[in-house]
Amino acid sequence: MSDLLRVATAGSVDDGKSTLIGRLLHDSKNIFADQLDAIDSASRRRGLGETDLALLTDGLRAEREQGITIDVAYRYFATPRRSFVLADTPGHVQYTRNMVTGASTADVAVVLVDARHGLVEQSHRHAAVAALLRVGHVVLAVNKMDLVHFAEEVYDGIVADFDVLASQLGIGSVTAIPLSALHGDNVVEPSVNLGWYAGPTLLEHLETVPVRDRSAVGARLPVQLVIRPRSASHPDYRAYAGRIAAGELSVGDEVVVLPSGRRSRVAGIDTFDGELESAGTGRSVAVRLTDDIDISRGDLICAVADAPTPTRELAGRVCIVAERSLRAGDRLRLKTGTRDVRAIVGSVRDRLDVASLARLDAEALNLNDIGDVTLRLAEPVAVDSYSASRGTGSFLLIDETSGATVAAGMVSGP
């Protein structure tokens, strides 16, 4: 069974993000005949001389009329070697929140750069967001090489500039690939026009880049449901269901339940397909413990060795995703994993200028702003830092009245 790679693409307007994804799907034979016919018809209606593959991902009517990407468009495809989820994220600065959404679960970020223009302000922004969200690997896709006559020196200059940027941002893994999404050069098949390039095509690289569990913590299982069937055939059955957010859980492991602090051992791990001896990150399971402990939805079952200390105060970096300001004193609900508690914004420390990485003084954060805040919680929560675990180091801030999500956040410390 092939594994799954989550890929987020980002670039400035007209760098060719949607065209690249369309070409990737078309040349890897992942487009149905009726989809291709529909795209052909839409391209003719727009007076285009050839099929516009960008229409595969520019699904919103507003996007098709303006020729830009606004929402995050997801596409799924597979090759014999791997399955993929592709997120086409917006390039406009006013849609930073959408890029944060698309990149938050990505294993790889593909940052597109127009070979004619090199790195621009949005290139810095997209690389910074990828670094901020701890995306494991970045692909620098130097697109539209056909418009610079496939010149190696142009490509080399852009790669050198990006290497400096990646070093400043702390991005440790970067692969650069020259291509032309419009004509298919180096997307799925090697290009005859890029004889000086000896590396893989984009698809070859995506098929082989390693997918790692980047969690630096032990097992974490947010409890979603307590299962007690109370049937005649299972009178004493009791299990705690959820999706493993980090690490690996095995039968016999000693665990602690937070925030109560009660300890036990794993007696069994059940799934729809039967029992398991161990289960890793991303697996949905029902865990049985050797002791009868009072556990409910929102509790966290953790490995004892590095269990976090429950806290009522958090420091975090947030991205505002609602059309409202976030200020000190605001009352919200904080949701992390399956736990939901009331929270008050203690302070807004600063706002991040994503292009320059400077931290600016701020009294409030507005739509698409990214900044550091402190939070005071009505009940203790058990979280890890985002740098140690994406799964247990992220949270949402929710408006108590409307239920709308105000901000997405990453835990930086207590």
What would you say about this model in short?
This protein has 414 residues and is α+β, with helices and mostly antiparallel strands.
How does the major sheet shape up? 8 strands, antiparallel
Rg on CA atoms, Å = 23 Å
Residue share in helix? 10-25%
Instruction: State which percent range the strand residues make up.
Output: 35-45%
Q: Any idea what the shape is? A: globular
CATH topology annotation of the largest domain:
Rossmann fold
CATH architecture of the largest domain: 3-Layer(aba) Sandwich
Verbal overview:
With 414 residues, the chain is of the alpha+beta class. It has 3 domains: 3-208, Rossmann fold; 220-303, Elongation Factor Tu (Ef-tu), domain 3 (Beta Barrel); 311-413, Translation factors (Elongation Factor Tu (Ef-tu), domain 3, Beta Barrel), CATH 2.40.30.10. Helix content is 18%, strand content 36%. The chain is built from 7 helices and 25 strands. The chain has helices at 17-27, 33-45, 61-66, 96-103, 121-132, 152-169, 202-208, and strands spanning 3-11, 73-78, 82-88, 108-114, 137-143, 174-178, 220-222, 225-227, 239-243, 248-250, 254-258, 262-271, 274-276, 278-280, 284-289, 300-303, 311-320, 326-327, 331-336, 339-353, 358-360, 364-365, 370-381, 394-399, 405-413. Strands 7, 8, 9, 11, 12, 13, 15 and 16 form an 8-stranded antiparallel β-sheet that branches. A 6-stranded mixed β-sheet has the order 2-3-1-4-5-6, sandwiched between helices. The longest helix has 18 residues, at 152-169. It is globular. The two termini are 41 Å apart. The model is unreliable at 60-70 (pLDDT under 50).
